[in-house]
Request: fold
Amino acid sequence: MFSPATSEVWRLTAFLLAGLLLGLAIDRPFLSLFIVTLGVLLWQLRQLRKYLWWVEKGDWSNPPSVSGMWGDVYTHYFRMVQRNRRRKRMLLDIVNRFRESAMALPDATVTLNEEGDIVWWNDMARRLFGLKSPQDLGQRIDNLLRHPSFTRYFQEGDFQQAVEIPSPVHPQIT
Reply:
C-alpha cells in the first residue's frame, strides 16, 4: 500500500496525464493542462477551507471524513488535540493534588510565578498575610509584604534559608 503522499502524487499524475491526453485529442494540450491544474488547486483549497473551518469550529469529537493526505492531516491533528487534552487533565490533577496538600500545611504557602506575582496561596497564608482574593492575585509579593527583611530576602533571590517577619495582620505572630 502506498503512503498518502505517494497516493496523492499518483492521483495528481493521473489527472495531469488525463488532461494532457484530452488536450492532445482536442489539439489544446496547454489549455487542458491549465484547466486540470486549476481544478486540482481549487479542490486543494476547498480541502484547506474545510480543515480551517473544522479547526476554528473546535468540534474535536469527530473529524470530517476526508481521503488522501488531507485525511492524514485531520487524523494527526485530531490525535494531537486528544493527547493535549489528556496532558492537560493530568496536569490539572497534579495541580489540584498540590493545592490540596498545600491547604493542609500548617505553614503559610504562597505560589509565585517567575516574576514574583502571586498565583495562589493556602488558607494559613490568607490569615497570616491578610491576602484577599481576587484583588491580590497577580500582585507582586514584595508589594504586599513590605517588611525590610523580606524585601531584602526576596530581592537577593537566595531562598536556601528561611526568613522570619512579623505578620502584617497579627504583628505578635512571627
In short: Residues 68-104 form the longest helix (37 residues).
